[in-house]
């Protein structure tokens, strides 16, 4: 799976906004949103994304950094679209927890 993701990273273009998420909404309060508005906050968020467990990090990056659809990700990684959605939601939940100051992002 990791090699497939690396190949996709190399061929992918563009950046898609997290605002384009079309699945289940993760509750983000104003404090969390404000914490990523600055360049320092954005750098912190990128570090948190990198620290996600590999399965979450790959799917999250393919969706939001490389702009792939859930179907494209599922096909590329040979997993179900439902599993892609689950991993995306869990990744976002972990990121919100981290931005609120809890845990190390790997659990």
Task: Characterize this entry briefly.
The chain has 107 residues and is mostly helical. The protein has 6 helices and no strands. It has a domain of 74 residues: Arc Repressor Mutant, subunit A (Orthogonal Bundle), CATH 1.10.10.10.
Strand content: under 5%
Query: What is the number of strand segments?
Result: 0
Number of helices: 6
End-to-end CA span: 20 Å
> What integer value in Å does the Rg equal?
13 Å
Mean of residue pLDDT values: 74
CATH level 1 name of the domain at 26-99: Mainly Alpha
**What is the chain-wise order of helices and strands?**
HHHHHH
What's the CATH topology name of the domain at 26-99?
Arc Repressor Mutant, subunit A
Largest sheet: none
How would you describe the shape? elongated
Structural class category: mainly alpha
CATH second-level architecture of the domain at 26-99: Orthogonal Bundle
Helicity level, as a percent range?
55-70%
What do we call the CATH homologous superfamily of the domain at 26-99? Winged helix-like DNA-binding domain superfamily/Winged helix DNA-binding domain
pLDDT < 50 stretches: 12-26
């Amino acid at each position: 799976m990791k090699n497939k993701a690396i190949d996709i990273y190399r061929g992918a273009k563009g950046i898609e906004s997290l605002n384009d998420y079309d699945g289940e909404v993760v509750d983000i309060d104003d404090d969390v949103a404000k914490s990523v508005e600055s360049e320092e906050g954005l750098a912190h968020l990128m570090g948190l994304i990198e620290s996600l467990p590999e399965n979450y990090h790959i799917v999250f990056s393919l969706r939001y950094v490389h702009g792939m659809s859930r179907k494209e990700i599922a096909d590329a990684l040979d997993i179900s679209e439902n599993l892609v959605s689950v991993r995306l939601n869990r990744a976002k939940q972990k990121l919100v927890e981290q931005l609120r100051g809890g845990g190390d992002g790997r659990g």
